[in-house]
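Dear colleagues,

As part of the handover before I leave the project, I'm documenting each prediction I ran so the next person doesn't have to rerun anything. This entry is a single chain, and its sequence is reproduced below.
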Amino acid sequence: MREPRLYTTSADYVYQELRHRIITKQLKPGQRLPEVNIAVQMGVSRTPVREALRRLASEGLVLVIPNSGARLASPSRREIEDAYVVREQLESLAIRLAVGRLSDRHLRRLEETVIAEERAFEEKNLELYLEVNESFHRIIAEASGNRVLADYVENILARTNVYIVFYDPFYDIETNPSIAEHRAIVNALRLRDEEKAVALMREHLALSMQDLRRPEEEATQKKETE
């Protein structure tokens, strides 16, 4: 059950409601988002709707096409693979640099994040899960001591989280191997084992990408098993 929110502006209200519908898969990749319809449904004017759609577009969740309107993003498999190639390189470098700089406080934060991640998964709260999952990777990037690298990691995390929203079977699975993978990464960092930490991060990201399934792939797999 969602906790009630306080909204500072109409645009904030529309943004939060649309984002919730996207994350809970009430809206589908590629679906059109007519401003007029949304304004009527939410009891606001078109201006806050337009502002909310621009904000969602900046996060990669929505595409705003001139003279055509807005629609949910629908990334291709190639786009997903390309993003994960970049993410693997950035995060491999980040964790390699972080091994020698990681403080006890960083390790505690990572451990707390894994616990929060497990709780969010048990509650099937994708919004919270995305937040703590991103926090785990951001802590490692911050520990690298390279501010430019951390900024790039944060950017690629936002992009790949979009793919999780659309194509990860979060609501349909009973176990989440990603949590155990995060624990293994923390253990390698605690031991200051640079090569193992890098290898575990690479493996974790490769498995994360493989777990993403576009709707047409799911349909094909289902047909093959029938």
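Strands lie at 62-65, 69-72. Confidence is low (pLDDT under 50) at residues 219-226.

All the best with the project,
I.
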